[in-house]
């Protein structure tokens, strides 16, 4: 039921404008006592009445080019006076691409809400207005205003629109603190499912911190409030009438509500909205590292008591920490005072930080916890750099050791990385270490997905340059009573990753 197939299907539905809004039931202030909460809210009528005017219907239209060229289906040649002439005239001559009809206007619907009545600022989902040629905002009192696009963010699926409020008094709502919401709290949804404006549904927060693989900063609120097509971009309210989420996705095999919907938390959305209003674009913090999860095996190899944090697998050349401040093999456990319990926590907290800010980062390096100071760069500036550069280990490669014979260890045959092996496996010149020339089938190395042509650059966070270095490091680890060996591997192009291999 919770497969990515359903999530993708829901996302495709939303992109077409048939988006779903998640907003659960909100209790009125007089029903917040524990005794009343146990029975659920008696009515949310007063709360809903004050919020309906701020929730809007987003109507978009897009001109789609007509079907032309080899793929076009020609109109059949019918005998004069054929009874099917009118039918085929209607079908073919009204298609996009036919003479007199070069394009077709496709319309879609979604939801949104006003956050600034004086400036006419409306928030919605990016997928609701993506690729639209015209955007209209329809208010609950029947007024329709043309909207201009202020800015969008595809990573969080947030868009900000602006309408001219002159001559029309708008009602606005404010953002609340989503971090205070608990599983079981009542929430309320107002949106436009299937174009039916002003629809109110209630429910609870079913779960928090959901990762549905829709973007790099997934941290969704899950709710069972009924949401359907046309609701995307609408607000999720708490019992005080504050927006604590923007509804954006559902899990559904049929496109209808089954009580599993997801909302972007206000804690994440608010910063994006502010940046879009101020700059027309996002300006996120950037650390300049490639990371991977800390597994139990990796934690044991690093001498950590528990598996937590984000393991630095590489440092982006030219990035903020390409000065040796943070090295490949470090584990980041705290960033600017915020704990990093899982790998996915780090990108979010870094992105929410101010560009140019100097922050304290707590790392574990070779089993020792220490704090380093880092000045953040800008993610948007670094993305192009990161896509064109390989991660660097930030280590001392030293002089190349004399040639030695190959060695066999942990199901791998390793050899010297020289001109011959570089050419054989297509290994880039900047990659250094010991090349893996063969991996034994069903071995410990094969089970970890290690392949011939990869290069061992470090073992247990110490550089290796020769096959003898590899043998010596493995032997030393066994003498220390270690069960796993932590290898840093470089791909043929130099991209780094960490792998643990059992040595028993």
Automatic annotation (TrEMBL):
Supply the EC number(s).
3.4.21.107
**Compartments reported by the entry:** Periplasm
Reactions the enzyme catalyzes: Acts on substrates that are at least partially unfolded. The cleavage site P1 residue is normally between a pair of hydrophobic residues, such as Val-|-Val
Keyword list (alphabetical) reads: Hydrolase, Periplasm, Protease, Repeat, Serine protease, Signal, Stress response
SUPFAM superfamilies found in the cross-reference section: PDZ domain-like, Trypsin-like serine proteases
Cite the active-site annotation: 127 (charge relay system), 157 (charge relay system), 232 (charge relay system)
Q: Does the keyword Chloroplast apply?
A: no
Matching entries from InterPro entries are given as: PDZ, PDZ_sf, Pept_S1C_Do, Peptidase_S1_PA, Peptidase_S1C, TAT_signal
The GO terms describing molecular function are:
serine-type endopeptidase activity
Its cellular-component GO annotations read:
periplasmic space
| Superkingdom per UniProt | Bacteria
Please state the span of the N-terminal signal peptide per the UniProt entry: 1-37
Instruction: Cite the PROSITE patterns for this sequence.
Output: PDZ, TAT
Where is this chain primarily localised?
periplasm
Instruction: Tell me where in this chain the PDZ domain is found.
Output: 276-367, 410-492
Where along this sequence does the record place binding of substrate?
127, 157, 230-232
Its GO biological process annotations read:
proteolysis
Its family remark reads: Belongs to the peptidase S1C family.
Q: What is this protein called?
A: Probable periplasmic serine endoprotease DegP-like
Organism field: Mesorhizobium wenxiniae
